[in-house]
What we know:
This protein is of the alpha/beta class. It has two domains: 16-266, Rossmann fold; 271-310, no CATH class. It is 38% helix and 15% strand. The chain contains nine helices and eight strands. A hairpin with a 2-residue loop joins strand 7 (255-259) and strand 8. Helix 4 runs parallel beside helix 6. Mean pLDDT is 90; it is low at 299-310.
Amino acid sequence: MRTPDMATTLDLTGRVILVTGGVGDIGSAVAAKAATNGATVVIADNGTGVTGAGSDREAVNRAVKRLAAHGSVAGYYCDLTDGDQVESMIDNLFVEHGNIDGVVAAAGTLRTRPIWQTTLDDWRNVMDSHATHTYLVAAAVCRRWRTNSARRGHCSLVNFTAATGLVGRPDLGVTHSAAKGAIAGMTLELAHEMYTYDVSVNAVAAANVRGRMADHVGAKVSEETDSFDTSSPDHAGVLAAYLASGDAAFITGQVFRVVGGLIGRYSPWEVTESIDRGGFWSIDDLRLGVRRLCGAYPEYKALQGRHREF
């Protein structure tokens, strides 16, 4: 797959892009950036609150009206954790548009209790809103992309993960960490599965984004009036919109980090250090070997002797 000609201007005209969680701060930013660059955008949401409480059907209509200034944006009310509703929505969009060229999965709730306070309802709510929703949407579009691969151009799937699921942090809860970790793993697997069908699959981990979730946890973020608004959702929005374009067709299986004007690329889980015993480990050898592997073995230097080979 060849990289694009950088002399041309990026244009998403003719490309249909579905943005789940399009009522939210990041989802709205993605939709706005894609529509501004010519895409036909459909946002899907169930209008729920940050914690998953309630369901405001009019929230989608209000978001569509707000986003209309950027270009072609339509709305779809859908419970993205309900497989039947997702299948029906995807089927209707394929019938209406012939294809969905890009999907950006940006929906999700947040419950930040530590594990000793987390309930099964918390677990299911956050896991479903992030990981299950991403799976349901991906499965629905990938089945159709596999079938129509010979009749269409390149397609893109962009998932939203978070540093919580990649390296952990102490304040967003085990539910958020598990859900975002699942999405990162799903992204890498789907990149392999869909490569032969001309579908790229990537993920974005956005941090320190101003909006409902930042307000919910009391995060310190920049103001819109700051000279450089580092917490604007537009930083994540423009990256996701680009990854959903045909211009980014050569990029797949990547997880990107975006914080303000900084864009980084994560390496997947990899073995960074290893010790090879060359045979079965005794528990005493293993005790010392693991200490050496973790760099916690100064007190054992005098005992290394026969252990030097591993």
